Amino acid sequence: MRRLILVEPVARSAVWSRRLSIFAIAIAAVAITLSRMRAADPAAVLTVFGAALVLAAFAALLAAAAASIIWRDGLRGVQQAASGFALAAALLAYPAYLAALAFALPPINEVSTDPKAPPAFLLSAKARAARAGGEPAPSSEDTRAAQRAAYPDIATVTVEMDSTQAYQLALSVANDLGWRIVDSEPPNLNGDGAALIEATARSLFFGFVSDIAIRIRPGATETAIDVRSVSRLGGHDFGSNAERVRKFIGEVKEATRER
Fold first, then answer.
1. Most exposed of 73, 92, 147, 228 (fewest Cβ within 10 Å)?
2. Where are the domains of the chain?
3. CATH of domain 110-258
4. What is the pLDDT of residues 20-49, one digit of tens each?
């Protein structure tokens, strides 16, 4: 006599949770790839990525519903529900972190070591072409006040070297940080000895561009180095410009200690 083996069915919500989470990650990967390849404009990229986040949130809800059904009815699908929730949570984690930063940090999109008189961006053909003909707008008093309150540690860095040495140091640090040098004006030794460097940096995931201006001004015994970082997209940088400026300052100070 043959034995009949009954196999409990799998909760459909668990299966769909995993399917949706995998699909959401694939869509997010496409959005990030298009952005980094500059194959789509930022608005379209963020729209596609937003759709991926909606799918991930729905997948997490399905996983929670599957857990309830599995507990109540004794169905299979724990592994599918768990993997669906884990994948969805992984995709939602970074946007959730950015949302927390949006509440904790001021809604500004630029930071400068000299808020009162930030470094100017170059007007050369190379620099204007890199900025697509545009130029970051002057910062408002509200932006300057918000920066001073949120990032009181960010200030002009001074080095005990002449302007030519400080210029070479700033170029070296910018390159070490992975910034792309757009154009530069070396120190004018027949004038005031000031120098300017313009660069761009890209964000980690989407590769969104920020414009950076570095100014070198010699004094009687020291040379002042100022840096300004401005995001091209959005009105909130989630602290990225402050972090970028801090890294530059830290590398400059570390390099001067090693000399």
1. 73
2. 12-104, 110-258
3. 3.30.310.80
4. 999 999 999 999 999 999 899 999 999 999
